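Researcher: Next sequence.
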Amino acid sequence: MKIICSKSNLLKSVNISLKAVPSKTTMPILECILMDATTNQIKFTTNDMELGIETIVDGHIEEKGMVALDAKIFYEIIRRLPDNDVTITTDSNYVATITCEKAKFTIPGKAGEDFAYLPVIEKDESLTLSQFTLKEMIRQTIFSIAVNENNRLMTGELFEIKDNCLKIISLDGHRISIRKMPLKREYSDRKIVVPGKTLSEVLKLLKDSEGEVEICPSRRHILFRIDNYTVISALLEGEFLDYKSALPKDKKTEVTVSTRTMIESVERVSLLITDRLKSPVRCVIGEDTVKLFCTTTMGRATDQISAEISGDQLEIGFNNKYLLDALRAAETDEVRLQLGGPISPMLVLPKEGDAFSFLVLPVRLRSEM
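Model: Next structure:
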């Protein structure tokens, strides 16, 4: 094999591919990046058996071939080469020679046939969205996935297709995030749980553009095709939690408020909260105002903002981080806050419609002296 690529193209592709290289494995071949130049394209593939990434690399093929190289060593070599064209050749024993200007490296490789290839996904019912739309949907939900492995399904997001609508749902036991989007054509009803790790990598590849992303779910895997990148992931198996039963059935109070104003107010009263000094943000919802309080051993902070309020007056407390995460994810000028009482969950919704819904559980307040 002999290929010639610019350092920048190589580095970009390898950097993305490394995300699917395991840090520890009993299968040394999984620590490799497969360089496949057997067709008219140069493809790099990595696969840790749960997440696989394939990239198409711009370059010139002088001699077709295939080799698997240690991914981390290859990355460090490419990273330190001069900013020029890089030539990669292999011999019959899979020894790779990497040259760029006066720099030259020779490293052993493995036969490409030994590599764990990505599973083949049937495109019987692929879903196409704009990259901007999918990026927005993931960004507005991924913040509320669970970070621990106590319930593995909570470390992923539910993709639910029903009634010609795609919903993406995440939850961690303290909050629920729901983002939905009407689909342009009919699809079969489907529920799958995609790992958060996969969606984090997909999010990095998506652009703020109307360019399309193809999503192909199967029984055990899901494929995302984004420009020159293909991401294939194993799905999380099991029954996702019944998030609908946790959503409040009625509202007694509704607050319409400027999102930016609310965020800034919560941030101000949160200045007295640290990792060591925990305290809820206390919200007193009255007539056309929301008063915010926070008390720790460092002191007491108060603030007040104007809002459009209907229904009962109430006092309720929230974890400041969870409240801020929901408000920041809204990405709209104004939000509606729906509350059912001082110990009922709060829903954060857009001013009009329900394109997103963020549920935040309250913190039980102790009376202040």
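Model: The longest strand covers residues 175-182. The first helix runs from residue 7 to 17.
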